Batch of 4 targets.
Target 1
Amino acid sequence: YITDEYLKPYTVFKNNMQDTYVDEMEICSEFEDGIAKREFQVFYQPVVDVKTGKIASAEALVRWFHETKGFISPGQFIPALEKGGYISELDRYMVRKVIECLEQRRKESRPAVPVSVNLSWMDFYDENMLEWIVSGLQCGGKEEEKMIRFEITETSLAAIGENHTRMLMRLRENGAKILLDDFGSGYSSFGMLQDYDFDILKIDISFVRNIGVNKKTESILRAIIDMAHQLGIRLVAEGAETEEQVAFLRENGCDYIQGYYYYKPMPQAEFLQLLEEGK
Ligand code: C2E
Ligand code: MG
Ligand code: MG
Ligand code: MG
């Protein structure tokens, strides 16, 4: 639709377009080089069990430390890599790195927890990628492979054609836990719960931010927690930063918390150190 924004002089519009275009082109054209130069790192953010305060699992989050441009945030390059068709290569890289890490832990008999990797809707159109994971799970199903979990947002799921969502269920049938990410932020949250089976639901950060601010949000949160439990699904609250938010989530029966209140995403070595310390 036409807004005032688009009625501004043509040059403004054109410049905006060009900036994004060039950035995205640059991101895509430098992606493979970045992989080769090991500029991409897996960061881990611990997920804490509300009852015990101990680390129950973690989420793998990609970080790009570009040789000349410095840190580029995932919020910027993930959408660009999706548009350019490179995201599956990145996600495959993440899965491989996480499996490597878990394998090492097993070989050295060191403590480990399950780790979830984010999937893009595009991964479902790259048959090879998910087939590769499923066959890994099927043949033998090594310990470390069973510890890999997958996160998908409801928005992503809505973008996948019916034929391709079968792959998600195949992952689950073969023992991988599936997490519904950013729950409540999309347009079909309840439809997703009705149509698919999930193991864990991740409550979107926008709800958590409103704890202590908006009474309506608090009621919605209680209802989400109750509903998930009735469906036999456990919950992770994303983005808890304050004592008040954590107290509310604990009192209302949320199972796990992932947020700066406990831990920020961190390099692998730091994360493994926490596990060594029995955190
Ligand atoms: P997400 O999967 O919802 O990940 C959670 C995001 O919330 C992460 O942002 C994390 O750093 C941030 N977060 C966690 N706790 C807090 C908190 O207490 N306060 C605040 N303000 N933020 C918190 P990050 O790492 O910037 O990632 C952004 C998004 O990029 C992710 O959202 C995910 O959708 C995507 N992403 C990240 N890594 C990958 C990847 O390897 N593959 C794919 N396909 N997507 C990825
Ligand atoms: Mg996620
Ligand atoms: Mg999320
Ligand atoms: Mg998100």
Note: The chain is about 50% helix and 20% strand.
Target 2
Amino acid sequence: VLDENGENAASQPLDTTGGAAAPTTHQALLSWVNEVAELTQPDRVYWVNGSVEENRLLTDELVDAGTLVRLNPETFPNSFAAFSDPKDVARVEEQTFICSEKREDAGFTNNWMDPGEMRAKLDGLFAGSMRGRTMYVVPFVMGHLAAEDPKFGVEITDSAYVVASMRIMANIGTDVLRKMEELDAFFVPALHSVGFPLAEGEDDVPWPCSDEKWIVHFPEDRSIWSYGSGYGGNALLGKKCYALRIASIMARDEGWLAEHMLILKLTSPEQKDYYVSAAFPSACGKTNLALLDPTIDGWKVETLGDDITWMRFGKEGELRAVNPEAGLFGVAPGTGWSTNPNAMRAIAKGNSIFTNVALTDDGGVWWEGMTDEAPAHLTDWLGQEWTPDAGHPAAHPNSRFCTPIDQIDMLADEYHSPNGVPVSAILFGGRRKTTVPLVTEARDWASGIFMGSTLSSETTAAAAGQVGLVRRDPMAMLPFIGYDAGDYLRHWIELSGKANQEKLPKIFLVNWFRRTADGGFAWPGFGDNARVLKWVIERLEGTADAVETPIGFVPTGDSIDLTGLDMTPADVEQAVRVDPQEWATELDAIDEWYERFGATLPQELKDRLAELKDRFAAA
Ligand code: GTP
Ligand code: SPV
Ligand code: MN
């Protein structure tokens, strides 16, 4: 293991004195690190500085250990492929817990266990869990280091793969640590172990993990304990665990929003800029929309973020958004030169870690949808020979690319602004074969929150469990709300009271995934989604036509720009159809959903549901 100069520091004893030789003057951090080392018994402790040189040495070690495969430097410079244990490929929602003091504070959408009981269980599991390994201390900040109130965390992990991935996804290392010291700042303690201690002389495996997995959040002290998994959302703790679950709790207390959203900037042919945020569930199109390459002339898209958005009302009552992340952890399958060239160009610059993709014979990577035709021969994500007639995908459906965000050519300059951008429209979207129109404009803010609260989507490979089941996913936050879901919806409603009502974003519901009678997609999606964004902007400007339906306003057949597309206004009408029979079923499902909330469901939303039923009854 390396010290700050890249020297071998294996013999460096842990400094428990806080003296001159201590790696930090932040006493709370030092004592937490010592406490964890005491509990987990690593062979050594290493403070991560975040340098290029350190990263080179760490990735070298990971290649030697067989965790990473170095890709062909000509085509994928400084890039690596990792292959997980086949049982460690996605977030484990069943094993994810919010351990608030009171059960009701976790709400019905979260697993809960008494915090004392959970701590005792975790103490048992973490005891000696890092034996034979290095314990890495990774100071990080989510969002800008120059923010008014920077949000610090420190991840302790026994996985060098996690360190290398965190380096892409967040700002980490010495600069962050120095700032934490200067401010004597609070940090979220985020403890991670793969749960695979090594006995004396025992050989390691390429992807250590445990059959038993626990992803645990303690809201009152804002701490995170993650055990047994090396997969992204379970192990890169700055991401879902901090920037969504813990941050949603901070946001509730401090008056802001932490959301599962992308942010994009749209420039119209008149050179007017608009910022749009959009919440879609996991693997439902955020990265693709964020990196959109418009198929219509005159409209320009730039990106600010693809997965997580923090929003607060600014001085003029406008809603301002920032992306707290520094990288993309994107779904690989379906990302290709024809569907998402901006992502492909960012990936091609290198400095990326791919997980559970397939390897080409010339040391590159491949996944379904990267090119129209699959290569004649591959090594699949399980290490088996693969040919196009194999009958199964070469890459895991939840395989991912992890790439620095500043490699995106179309990254908006405003990404770098700590004050964020003013949002003028919010989209909520899901993956629905039926029922939900291509795009619907909400009547007003409260109806928009209603749309968000009843958002639904077919489950995907991003979480362990069955794929393709319709489930409600409020604001695409079902697996990420860190507290009671009814209180979360109330927070959305109450926050808007702080807004300049003139500047409140308009809210839209979208569905790129509706099918036609013959089973095909009713809408081409991807770059053509710019046509829907154009309609959204024209609605903001009051220039596009719409039809009023019980659920809101949908485009008229000829209000969507179809230039250059093999589609007719009648096809658009099909894609935006509000079918009373489908909606009768939907309203029953929404009734059932709302019943699950219990007492905390805001009355405003019950009222919106009643009005919706009345409108269908009158139609
Ligand atoms: P997470 O990173 O899991 O939060 O997912 P995400 O919301 O960023 O999803 P992403 O953009 O990576 O899309 C996931 C899948 O949806 C990919 O397989 C895409 O090919 C597919 N997809 C994205 N946009 C569209 C679209 O407009 N139409 C269709 N048909 N599929 C799409
Ligand atoms: C998601 O599942 O929504 C992701 C990937 O963005 S992960 O970071 O694994 O949660
Ligand atoms: Mn996500």
Note: Confidence is low (pLDDT under 50) at residues 5-20.
Target 3
Amino acid sequence: NPIIIAEDVHKWYGKFHALQGVSLTVNRGEVVVLMGPSGSGKSTFIRTFNALEEYQKGKIIIDGITLSNDLRNIDAIRKEVGMVFQQFNLFPHLTVLQNITLAPIWVRRWTKAKAQDLAMQLLERVGILEQAHKYPGQLSGGQQQRVAIARALAMQPKIMLFDEPTSALDPEMVREVLDVMRNLAREGMTMVVVTHEVGFAREVADRVILMDSGFLIESGTPDSFFNQP
Ligand code: ADP
Ligand code: ADP
């Protein structure tokens, strides 16, 4: 029973047809990697899964909830779907701990103590417990991205979306972020990942999808993608 169903999704930016009828079904616990040239619609597509982008035609159902422009559904879906961006998007004037506890306190209405407790567990899990009271600007890119992952996980999502999570990182920091993602995948998180990291796709993905010019043009196992004669 699939947790993401996207059916014939179309998206226009003005006259530009960015998604030209894209369909994808993702099962619980599955890790799907989206690849393809820059501008092919990968980011636009995954952003429709948590209503960061509207779409004009087609159907998206997340964990049984139909994603329409009904605001109530959007709130429900945003609680289920966490997202990590290329540029971290942390709040610079808040500490690491405050970044992570903000949404649980204000959206989930958790007590500060409960939110902080979970945040500390998550920081330990992503390997940066000792940075809890620092500000994002005091951290390396790799550390900031791990904070962003912890912040998304603090909402206890059922699905995690990653939009080129390592593209803004220096090479030596890429691995620490991919390791965190690999562990998440092992723990059974449903993940849709836009990345150019072939190694990650090969080792972690259950399925690799290739997009081009707003179309989904190929879908298969990592083996069928990377081990062709
Ligand atoms: P990818 O993630 O594969 O690089 P994107 O989804 O970011 O591709 O973009 C797909 C296409 O849509 C690109 O041609 C891009 O320029 C265009 N696009 C993205 N966002 C907007 C926007 N807000 N307004 C107009 N065009 C956009
Ligand atoms: P990415 O490929 O990583 O998504 P882009 O450079 O395509 O990054 O887009 C960065 C931001 O600019 C996004 O918010 C996207 O929606 C917006 N954008 C991209 N292309 C256009 C465009 N042609 N017109 C307006 N906004 C755009």
Note: Residues 171-186 form the longest helix (16 residues).
Target 4
Amino acid sequence: AKTAGRNTFRFYASGMNAAVREELELENDLREAVERESFELYYQPKLDTVSGRMVGMEALIRWHHPRRGWVSPAEFIPLAESTGLIVRIDTWVLEEAVRQLSAWKKLGQALVPIAVNVSAREFASGNVLARIEQLIGRSGLPADLLELEITETTLMQDVDGTAPLLSALKKLGVGLAVDDFGTGYSSLNYLKRLPIEVLKIDQSFVSDIGTDEDDTTIVSAVIALAHSLRMKVVAEGVETEAQAAFLKEQGCDMSQGYLYSRPLPADELLAFWRRR
Ligand code: C2E
Ligand code: CA
Ligand code: CA
Ligand code: CA
């Protein structure tokens, strides 16, 4: 029994080592990727639910790892957050999004806003306002072409501390959206204390429209709540016609999801955009 126990332990320990080693390796690779800026921005269209026109898009980062291939942001963003690399990644994303807008403008494209995800760490760093002000100023683009998606959990961390920053961003003209709305188990009180214009209903609710009665009710309630607070609503993760029909019937303003388009590289996004 003792031997078995020791073997079990050894197996466990070496398993741990492998996991830790892999994590460290990924961290080193991520550091290198940040140095070399070996990321790409993909864009997912946001469509007006009634007209079907493309009225915005969300920028989503992709990392092409030299050996692993594409690594999902769901995997490396948490690592980037725990190591602090996220601040440089978020900066790169903001700059790339604005650079892309300028490139599309040069092509004569009538622009729509790009939404960029901002991590909690970046948001708390105190650099966001100055960085965005500078970026917008340099680009000569109107500030309302940039929208920030901030998760409900991030906003909830420090409502009072966040309020002045959001107000300053709003004054600058930048759009503000609450991401993953409904997953933060929050009191709804913060909503009226922050100058927010858009709620994004989390896809976990959208995916269960029609199959889970509670989730269906939550979706209707969020739309009604947002409208009563004079906010717009985006449904994310729309995959089926049935979901789209329900959202339209409920008056949801915008929809985003695989039903319409996956996130696309800039050139493919432009082709989709021009077809609409
Ligand atoms: P998120 O901000 O909630 O982004 C939505 C995620 O849902 C994206 O995954 C998108 O590709 C995916 N999605 C869109 N439509 C559908 C659909 O119809 N069905 C399904 N099943 N999924 C759909 P992605 O690109 O893998 O990103 C995952 C998360 O990583 C994002 O969640 C966001 O939290 C984070 N992230 C992505 N890009 C960035 C970035 O540039 N900066 C930061 N800080 N975080 C990012
Ligand atoms: Ca988002
Ligand atoms: Ca989301
Ligand atoms: Ca459910």
Note: Residues 208, 212, 215 surround calcium ion (ligand 4) (CB under 6 Å).
